[in-house]
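Colleagues,

For the teaching module next term, I've prepared a clean inverse folding example: a structure given as tokens, and then the sequence designed for it. I'd like students to try predicting residues themselves before seeing the answer, so please don't circulate the second half yet.
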């Protein structure tokens, strides 16, 4: 059980990147760990903002947190999965604190340390380049690599009759949008919803709002291609926030009232204000867009207080990955959650192109196919 795996990983050596492919070694799994042969890993906004050090994680580091692969080897104490199982990797959590135990592992008291600490909780790492440790365990996986180490807790066993290479983004971006609507906001049939930002997260929220039975679903974005996709996926209305006042549009569509729920996924404080101003009385705005640490936003306190509006932050769709990810896969298999429409595949060698296309908004959800060293 002691042999290492030879792998190829995308390493960020300095602030701003690029992702550089390197031959590395990955340690054998410890007793509670699982070694996964990666098939494909989605790329999410958080990979880019850590590469750019909006969140100051230690460098050099292997990122990637939407992994899908096949279990290669398991530690002695692992019972949840066995070699050959198909798995999706999600965020990790302690499993012991009050928040984990009450069904909210995305709000684990050790969330930051475990997902963004740059290594295991004891400070060690599993990936080395020529004997020198690289930071890893990003979201408990660092899956921009042909092999990745996770723990039993943050891998989800999935059915084998759906394409595994598609499933990684269910570990973060897609669950974030869908979970915000289904778990956190609790959108109900017959109600109204607006997504501010129609990237992968916003579009997943729109698909979920349709699943929940919302009858007015409004997409707000500045890119015509995204607005068109939003309408294909279930938006009943679409507004270009660059050429039209989104708040006025939403009021007009809802007979002057505003919508019951909004979701802000752009990370822009001005858009957040619009998402609050577009709410009906007793409406709720969910916030999932992450601006740089220290960003402040403003709104008229009376516009929050008098109509009884709420604003709440949402992490990872407040999901329990073992429960939520298989549900989304079943919905996908039934044709009711077609998140594959958001996806574009890239070979590992084009990981920087994938990042560029995603940042420009040309690609909604890049997935990197992992290629083994030759
Ligand atoms: Zn916890
Ligand atoms: Zn993510």
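(Answer key — instructors only)
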């Amino acid at each position: 059980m002691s042999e290492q795996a030879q792998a190829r990983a995308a390493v960020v050596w300095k602030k701003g990147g690029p992702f550089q492919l390197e031959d590395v070694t990955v340690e054998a799994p410890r007793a509670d760990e699982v070694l996964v042969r990666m098939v494909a890993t989605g790329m999410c906004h958080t990979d880019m903002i850590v590469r750019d050090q909006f969140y100051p994680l230690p460098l050099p580091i292997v990122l990637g947190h939407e992994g899908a692969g096949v279990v290669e080897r398991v530690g002695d104490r692992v019972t949840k999965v066995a070699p050959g199982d198909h798995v999706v990797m999600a965020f990790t959590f302690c499993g012991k604190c009050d928040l984990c135990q009450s069904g909210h592992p995305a709000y684990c008291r050790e969330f930051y340390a475990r997902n963004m600490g740059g290594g295991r909780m004891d400070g060690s790492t599993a990936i080395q380049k020529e004997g020198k440790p690289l930071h890893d365990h990003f979201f408990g996986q660092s899956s921009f690599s042909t092999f990745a180490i996770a723990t039993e807790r943050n891998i989800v066993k999935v059915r084998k009759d759906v394409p595994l290479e598609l499933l990684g983004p269910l570990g973060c971006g897609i669950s974030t949008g869908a979970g915000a609507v289904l778990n956190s906001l609790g959108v109900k049939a017959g109600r109204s919803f607006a997504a501010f930002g129609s990237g992968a997260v916003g579009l997943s929220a729109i698909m979920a709002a349709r699943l929940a039975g919302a009858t007015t679903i409004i997409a707000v974005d500045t890119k015509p291609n995204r607005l068109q996709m939003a309408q294909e996926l279930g938006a009943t209305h679409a507004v270009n926030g660059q050429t039209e006042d989104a708040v006025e549009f939403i009021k007009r569509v809802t007979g002057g009232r505003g919508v019951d729920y909004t979701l802000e996924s752009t990370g822009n404080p001005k858009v957040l204000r619009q998402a609050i101003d577009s709410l009906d009385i007793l409406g709720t705005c969910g916030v999932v867009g992450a601006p740089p640490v220290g960003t402040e936003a403003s709104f008229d306190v009376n516009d929050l207080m008098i109509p009884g509006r709420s604003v709440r932050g949402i992490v990872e769709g407040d999901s329990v990955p073992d429960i939520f990810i298989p549900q989304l896969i079943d919905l996908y298999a039934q044709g009711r959650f077609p998140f594959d429409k958001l996806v574009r595949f890239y070979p590992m060698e084009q990981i920087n192109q994938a990042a560029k296309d995603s940042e420009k908004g040309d690609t909604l959800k890049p997935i990197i196919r992992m290629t083994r060293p030759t």
